[in-house]
Write a structure and sequence with these properties.
Strand order of the largest sheet: 1-2-11-5-9-8
CATH class of the largest domain: Mainly Beta
Number of strands: 11
Number of helices: 1
Shape: globular
Helix content: under 10%
CATH topology of the largest domain: Jelly Rolls
Number of domains: 2
CATH architecture of the largest domain: Sandwich
Radius of gyration: 17 Å
Largest sheet: 6 strands, mixed
Structural class: mainly beta
Strand content: 35-45%
Distance between the termini: 44 Å
């Protein structure tokens, strides 16, 4: 009986989480304001660091580090990815991407030490790379409900140039931004 309790409570917890605006795994598929009818009457409170999310510009990602464009910190973009087979990753992705998915690379410059957050509009694997080594993430979360932000990943970074490598995206256009949070 006890082992079934979490399964029985899952819909209740998801409903409460949605009602108070807290992200919950059961509500993950229902976050896009363009496709989720329950978002029609929701007033979204997006955090200050993501206030630029709705003013994205198109940016075609690189297929290798040498042709990766620059994504400025605090700028949001609709990244146009390439088929996975066309991309030369800088490092092996931390998670094996599914066949038929999309990938791409962008460069970014970190001006000062801090925690930087990558926000994505779809689920995809994100690696942040300095030189030839990946940087370990420090936190993961789902984006705020009804904002179009699906995934948040934090990285502790020092000043310098980095590559953001995206793999396993289910769609070719991926909204993204990188912001300093502390």
């Amino acid at each position: 009986m006890v082992r079934f309790l979490p399964t029985l409570l899952e819909p209740l917890v998801a409903g409460i989480a949605a009602a108070v605006g807290v992200s919950h795994p059961a509500a993950a598929a229902m976050q896009n304001p363009a496709t989720d009818p329950s978002c029609a009457n929701v007033r979204v409170a997006i955090s200050a660091e993501l206030s630029h999310w709705s003013t994205r510009t198109p940016l075609t990602t690189g297929t290798a580090p040498r042709n990766a464009p620059v994504l400025g910190i605090g700028r949001a973009a609709d990244l146009r990815l390439a088929p996975l087979s066309a991309v030369q990753p800088r490092i092996a992705p931390g998670k094996a991407p599914p066949a038929g998915s999309y990938a791409g690379l962008v460069m970014f410059q970190v001006p000062r030490t801090g925690t930087y957050r990558v926000a994505l509009g779809q689920k995809a694997w994100v690696d942040v790379i300095r030189g030839r080594a990946g940087v370990a993430s420090s936190a993961h979360a789902m984006g705020p409900r009804c904002t179009g932000v699906a995934k948040l990943v934090d990285f502790p970074l020092r000043p310098g140039r980095y590559v953001m490598q995206l793999t396993g995206a289910p769609v070719q256009t991926l909204p993204a931004t990188i912001v300093r949070v502390k």
